[in-house]
Input
Amino acid sequence: MAQKLTDKERQSLIDLANEARRRAYAPYSNYPVGAALRTKTGRLYTGVNVENAAYPHTMCAERVAIFKAVSEGETEFEVIAVVTNNGGSPCGGCRQVLAEFGLDTIVLIADGDGNLQKELTVAELLPEAFTPEHLL
Output
C-alpha cells in the first residue's frame, strides 16, 4: 500500500521535477517534461524528455528517471512527480514501465508553475495493467 505524503514532500518532488525540466531536450515539440522519482530507500532520480529528429527514438522524462534508478540497482519506488507546462499526464509507455515496478507507486502530476494537478497511483493511472504476474 502506498504511503501518505506530506505537503512538503509533494512540493519538494514537484520542485525537483520542475528544475530538471529546464534541462529537457525538446526542440521539436517544445514540450519540456521533468520527472523526479523517489525510491523506497529514499534515493532521488530525475529525468527529462530527450527528443530525437527520428521521433520514435525520443525518450520520456519518466522513463529516464526510472532507468537511471534501475541502473543503480533500485527497483522499488514510492513516488514520481511529473511536471509539464500544462500538467499533462504520463504517456501509455511510461504508465506501462511504471507498472512493471509497482502499481502502488504514487504519481504526482503538476504544471510548470509547480501546482499539483492530480495525485493518483499507477494502478489508477493504468487500470488492468499488464504486469509480470501475467507471464506466469
The first helix runs from residue 7 to 21. The radius of gyration is 14 Å. Helices lie at 7-21, 61-71, 92-100, 122-125.
